[in-house]
Amino acid sequence: MEPDVIMKTAIVFYGGKYLPKYLYKYRYWNDFTHGLLETGDFFLPSRKKFNDPFDCDFHIPYEDGSELERTAYVVRAMSQDFGITRPDDLAIEATVSLNNMPDTRDERREHARASFFQSMDRYGIYCLSSVCTDILMWSHYADYHKGICIGFDTVKLLESVESQLDTKFFMDYIRYSHQAPRINPYDFAREESQYLQEISLLFLTKYKTWEYESEFRICCDGFADVSITIDTACIAEIIFGINTPDETINKVRSICKGRDIAFYKAEKLEWQYGVKIQPL
């Protein structure tokens, strides 16, 4: 069996989910990639840095709630988004917010969208893939096949990330769809679990065209545009692209010298469009 087939079929169980044994990050060779390999510098960008303006977008098919539902929605927003927990403070802030709520339904819908985006902007998101042989991703994210693809041991990576966090953290595969997520903000006022489910849906849904990426995301509340330090032992494999220069290959191998990392080289398949992974 070829090495790339082995990588894609190995499965582990973690956090109540069946996951691939390895998760991959396609990278240009630059200072940021150097830092990741050498010291475990793990940058968690916010949604604003994504290359797709439709990513993390959503639709509110707005139905005006009752006065009780609006109040519950505002109270939850105050406690979750702004950390206000004392009953007296909540009552004051909720009253002010309700009095300032827009008059028309469309304005209230845009107000709710802005509130959701404000909550979402706290999250740092790390995007990975379950595949290491996709031609387009090698072109788009790995400098036209001149960069590298880093293979993380999935369980070690998630354990290392979780050890750095003291806040909400969720991870899962992207769900691909022709329709943007639809959410009802008043649902958030009813159940904590509903709030977390809806928030995760916004981060984990993308347009169907992106399905080839087989994307997996790690989403960390309170870590937008922040670097954390992961254990470099999470890095299990490094794959060099078809056009990766020898200088880059030698530099990467020097940085990782003495560590338990397997090195591979991407090559063209014969007689068809595709990439195969061969051991170095």
Q: How much helix, percentage-wise, in residues?
A: 25-40%
Q: How far is the N terminus from the C terminus?
A: 16 Å
Low-pLDDT residue spans? 1-9
Report the major sheet.
5 strands, mixed
Shape, principal axes of CA atoms: elongated
What does this structure look like?
The protein has 280 residues and is an alpha+beta fold. The protein contains 9 helices and 14 strands. A 5-stranded mixed beta sheet has the order 3-6-12-13-14. A 3-stranded antiparallel beta sheet has the order 5-10-7, with no helix packed on it. Helix 9 (246-255) links the parallel strand 12 and strand 13. Helix 3 (67-82) crosses helix 4 (87-99). The protein is elongated, with a radius of gyration of 22 Å. The two termini are 16 Å apart.
Structural topology:
Elements: H1 3-9, E1 11-14, E2 17-20, E3 22-27, H2 31-39, E4 41-44, H3 67-82, H4 87-99, H5 105-120, E5 123-129, H6 135-141, E6 148-153, H7 154-163, E7 169-173, E8 175-177, H8 192-203, E9 205-207, E10 215-221, E11 226-229, E12 235-240, H9 246-255, E13 262-268, E14 275-279
Parallel strand pairs: 8-9, 12-13
Antiparallel strand pairs: 1-2, 3-6, 4-11, 5-10, 6-12, 7-10, 13-14
Helix pairs in contact: 3-4
Short description:
This protein has 280 residues and is an alpha+beta fold.
Defining key terms:
alpha+beta, 5-stranded mixed β-sheet, about 35% helix, disordered N terminus
